[in-house]
Amino acid sequence: MTLETLPGDLYHMQELLDDREKEIIARVRGFLESKVQPIANDCWTRAEFPFDLIPAFGELGVAGLAYDECPGEAPSSLLTGFLALEMARVDPSMSTFFGVHTGLAMGSIGRCGSAEQRARWLPAMGRMEKIGAFALTEPGGGSDVALGLKTTARRDGDAWVLNGAKRWIGNGTFADLVVVWARDEEDDKVKGFVVEKGTPGFNATRIENKIALRTVQNADIALEDCRVPEANRLEGATGFRETAAILRRTRSGVAWQAVGVMLAAYGIARDYAVEREQFGRPIAKFQLVQDLLVRMLGNATASLGMVVRLAQLQDDGLYRDEHSALAKAYCTSRMREAVGWARELMAGNGIVLDYDIGRFVADAEALYSYEGTREINTLIVGRAETGHGAFV
């Protein structure tokens, strides 16, 4: 399968992928364009998730590539990044669904689970027969969750009893496996637990009235004397340091998503400018319109260069918290500008879903905030550069 040129990839970054990786991207792109794109606006409008697409999603064979327990050759960070980009370029909601499942949920089990736990859960998750979620954020704790985690875990014989509440949990309403982070009442350490669907004391309620990522099924989760067997405690999750390591990796994925959104916005705006006529000619012939297009392209190109280098650092084992933090903060800020310029270029047509850009403008707001706000990521970089923490 031939991989066509990525629209907006002015410096041909896609060519850094090897032939096997290009074939994977071509396969995924074909699925997204034929199955996801035609229904994206409708699902977004109705705030409904296309569950019928999950089996076909699983057949792509990309969910479990990063894990030894799943078939396939381990992917480079560049391939993982381009997968996030491709999904976000068509539908940020589907990209978020996939990132929560593969990066946060599978990533927690892959990094913190025992060999038995990885073998127990990862193969089915890799086939997307079981879908995962990641429950860290709480109603009263987002940016300060490292110190302010309120959900508790108490050992009771061969089980743990979880009590507390979680909020904004993507996939939370339907996930088969939810990785819940809670503070051990005995040693005050943050630990991870896999709560399986149907466990008594676990209740998930969909968050309504969202203006972004409406297709994503975010949940409020209540844990009331929820009993989880010791076998479901992630053995390697012995403190928030492990949680942070997972977030470091997935934070870079959000930067790649932001690039995908920018390329989508640029492509939509460029095509519109070429076709739309005012004053007797295509608006693409006007200097101010070309200025907006080039600003968008510049933002996307600079951000793509940043995340490509970040992927190389990841594969070389050289990347640190500040690398992914800067990428997330910078790329999502440039994304916010780019979608705004695209909407500006399209004037009134930019606020209706018929022209797609309105969905990207709204979804960009969620990407800008989740996986660490710009302010928090700025402070992570600032601490690394100055040696002084300024969080409080």
Automatic annotation (TrEMBL):
InterPro entries given in the database record: ACX4-like (IPR045008), Acyl-CoA_Oxase/DH_mid-dom (IPR006091), Acyl-CoA_Oxase/DH_mid-dom_sf (IPR046373), AcylCo_DH-like_C (IPR036250), AcylCo_DH/oxidase_C (IPR009075), AcylCoA_DH/ox_N (IPR013786), AcylCoA_DH/ox_N_sf (IPR037069), AcylCoA_DH/oxidase_NM_dom_sf (IPR009100)
Keywords per UniProt: FAD, Flavoprotein, Oxidoreductase
Domain annotation Acyl-CoA oxidase/dehydrogenase middle: ranges: 133-226
Domain spans labelled Acyl-CoA dehydrogenase/oxidase N-terminal: 19-129
Domain of life: Bacteria
PANTHER family hit by this protein: ACYL-COA DEHYDROGENASE (PTHR43188:SF1), ACYL-COENZYME A OXIDASE (PTHR43188)
Oxidoreductase among keywords: yes
Name of protein: Acyl-CoA dehydrogenase family protein
Residue ranges annotated for the Acyl-CoA dehydrogenase/oxidase C-terminal domain, each copy included: 239-384
Record keyword Flavoprotein present: yes
Family the UniProt entry places it in: Belongs to the acyl-CoA dehydrogenase family.
Transmembrane segments: none
